[in-house]
Amino acid sequence: MEGILDPILQSGEFILLRNLCTLFFIVLHIALTFWSYRDADRRGAMGWFWALAVFLFPLAGWAVYLVVRPPEFIDDAHERELEIRAKEVALQRDFESCPSCRQPVEKDFLICPACMKKLRKPCIECDKALKLNWKVCPFCKTKQQ
Ligand SMILES: [Zn+2]
Ligand SMILES: [Zn+2]
């Protein structure tokens, strides 16, 4: 059997193909290393450490990285934090405090449940809670006496 494949193995086409394959894997290896660096960096992990690990142990390093990498990007985590803060602010806006006793009151309370101070008046038409100085109901456009 020995030597039967020699003409194929030594042909120019085979060597070219082999070189192309080698080149392909080298490019893939570099791309994977670079990708690991960028991905780890964006997730707040040690980019250089993981790039080195993937470079030294091409498949094993990459597989380990995919398992242990932080689950989300730093940008995403930051964005989520901003979102939560915006929601908190919006939530706070729905609550007010009584100008007289400082107890928290909801914005459609007519009187303060703690000190009985009059906070709002009901619209004469639709019954929605209006500020005491509003001349017209913004919900149903009815003029208030
Ligand atoms: Zn009060
Ligand atoms: Zn109204």
* Total of helices: 5
Mean pLDDT: 87
Helix content: 40-55%
H/E series = HHHHHEEEE
Count the E strands. Answer: 4
Structural class: mainly alpha
Low-confidence stretches: none
State Rg.
35 Å
Shape: rod-shaped
User: Which small compounds were modeled alongside the protein?
Assistant: zinc ion
Strand content: 5-15%
Largest sheet strand order: 1-2
- Sheet with most strands: 2 strands, antiparallel
Whole-Å distance between the termini? 109 Å
Question: What does this protein structure show overall?
Answer:
- The radius of gyration is 35 Å and the shape is rod-shaped.
- The model has no long low-confidence stretch (mean pLDDT 87).
- The longest helix has 31 residues, at 12-42.
- It has a domain at 9-74.
- The protein has helices spanning 6-9, 12-42, 47-56, 58-68, 74-93; strands at 95-97, 104-106, 120-122, 129-131.
- By secondary structure, the chain is mostly helical.
- It has a two-stranded antiparallel ribbon with strand order 1-2. The chain has a two-stranded antiparallel ribbon with strand order 3-4.
- It is built from five helices and four strands; from the N terminus they run H-H-H-H-H-E-E-E-E.
- A hairpin with a 6-residue loop joins strand 3 and strand 4 (129-131).
- It binds zinc ion (2 copies).
- One zinc ion binds at residues 98, 100-101, 103, 112, 114-115, 117.
- One zinc ion (ZN) binds at residues 123, 125-126, 128, 137, 139-140, 142.
